[in-house]
Amino acid sequence: MRVLMFGWEFPPYQAGGLATATVGLVKGLLRQGVGVTLVVPFPVTESPLSGLKLLGVEGAEAPLTVHRIPSTILPYGTETQYQEILAAAPRSGTRQVYGETLVAEVDRFASFAAEFARQEPHDVIDAHDWLTFPAAIAAREVSGRPFVAHIHATEYDRAGEHGNAEIIRRERDGLTAADRIISNSHVLKRVCVERFGAVARRVDVVHWGIDGTVSATHEPPPVIRDLAGRRRPVVLFLGRVTWQKGPDYFIEVASRVSRYVPDARFVVAGTGNLLPRLIQRAAELGLADKVHFTGGLQGRDVTRAYRMADVCVMPSVSEPFGLVALESLRHGTPCIVPRTAGVSEVITNAFKVDFWDVAAMTDQVVALLRHPALRHEMSENGSAEVSQPRFGLDEPASRTVESYRRALATRGGHH
Known about the structure:
- By secondary structure, this protein is α/β, with parallel strands linked by helices.
- Helix content is 42%, strand content 15%.
């Protein structure tokens, strides 16, 4: 089987979990013997994965030019956030980092799709989120092959009831046009059905997995120490600093936890439009010397953050899945996750809480910081759980292939 896949993020151009999920899926598909051609909206020099054919939009005629600024690509940002970043982004001569609007860039990318569909042999077309749905639809018009829509999050997840109407329309158009839909959780499937009118029997739920091994390291975990050299306990928030991820709840939890564990330190690892407000709120609460804002982290720095932390808190208002929880547990860091997160459907060894329940989150964090035996137990059990094969890359890839086969089997009955 050969798949023509349209993606928006792929290392080193990434803003959040979309790139991580795409890499994991591609690795898993390649291990299943599936041929993958991945098309991305920026120039590429070589494929980072053996066996993957990675194609980018290149050449003097190409209007899509990306500089190595991870925060520029905002697949989960709103149009307003995109405009703010665009205004602050550096220019390259008269060429902009991206187009004047994110929607315009999506349409430009789609304009190249037909040619890729003509040139690249494929049995199935796969696309990730609304950014690449138009490209997949354009490709299907050329090849007639079935289009499988991967949905990672919707505008309702990113912005609540006041999301961008144009993005919501495009999400609906893509999900309606798709021969089959792959959702990363049951909670997101319900959104697709109830909010976008997707036909439930055409939506397959495939929970994401992660690379199951942690790179061996002989380095001691990084620590934050006080003036006497004593190690301070660390509470971590890692993710986009946007409404969807609930960083403002994290700061409120930090304020309460510091009353019970005065030497605790809090790390906010990520960038986003709420960062200035968060810094100001930390100062208002008297936490200026206790909250460390690292900006966006990648690669080894992400690993160091997990290893430094005693607990990772994920207070997302809306979390269709939540790869951060799996990554945290994989590194042996206990995690607190929202009850409504997609990842809560599949993991047992984590504290689960209502995202708005600051008091309950505070109790859980304090318990983990004060009781090393509890922390050790949660660490051992969580790490063991996510090392199971079902949390690896092969099972999600296998289930994705099953979805491709269903799309091939029913092709022609939906258009």
